[in-house]
Specification:
Elements lengths: L4 H9 L2 H13 L17 H7 L14 E3 H11 L1 H4 L22 H4 L3 H11 L10 H14 L8 E3 L27
Antiparallel strand pairs: 1-2
Helix pairs in contact: 4-8, 7-8
């Protein structure tokens, strides 16, 4: 006789009445599950897809209308971001900006290659408890403020869909475009 409960359960399901019950349940539930037969959720509508199709490329394609300055971003930052990132983005491992003279730790200012990536990431993932809840204006303001904290733009420079892709990040030259298309070309 099996000595543990899992073995006992498996033994009962594979013999006699347990086997019959297993077959009945299998047939009633439609056999092996597939995407078409799970009957959970629903197909994504065009509106559902549009809400998530918000990627922004290095060239700025996908940036929405709007814009803001770092001065406007400071208010948003203090209410939405400072709790995790600390005053002026310099707290612990969630550091957004390096302290003057400290380039050892990778931050947005000394590691990210494109300014548009800041906008894209903040819009998709921040704040952690409510990602996607910030307006486009707030995201532009935060992006400007983060660039300002990293001494990349002045506090009064307005960023928008036209100017953001043109901002030269200090680490841009460390990265090369990935020109692979997939399939057999991938090395």
């Amino acid at each position: 006789m099996p000595d543990n409960i899992q073995q006992q359960f498996a033994t009962r399901l594979s013999t006699g009445p347990g086997l019959i019950l297993s077959v009945i349940l299998f047939v009633m539930l439609g056999g092996p599950a597939s995407a078409d037969t799970l009957s959970i959720g629903r197909a994504a509508s065009a509106a559902d897809i549009a809400r998530w199709d918000i990627d922004v490329g290095p060239d700025g394609v996908g940036l929405p209308p709007g814009g803001a300055t770092a001065a406007q971003g400071e208010t948003v930052y203090n209410s939405q971001c400072a709790g995790c990132h600390g005053p002026q983005g310099r707290r612990g491992r969630d550091r957004l900006a390096a302290a003057p003279g400290d380039e050892r730790r990778k931050t947005i200012g000394n590691y990210w290659p494109y300014a548009t990536t800041i906008f894209d990431y903040v819009r998709r993932a921040m704040p952690p408890g409510a990602p996607g809840s910030l307006s486009d204006e707030q995201v532009y303001a935060l992006t400007a403020y983060i660039l300002y904290l990293n001494s990349i733009i002045p506090a009064d420079q307005r960023i928008d869909a036209e100017s953001l892709p043109g901002i030269e990040m200090p680490a841009r030259k460390r990265f090369v475009p990935d020109n692979r298309r997939g399939g057999p070309e991938v090395r």
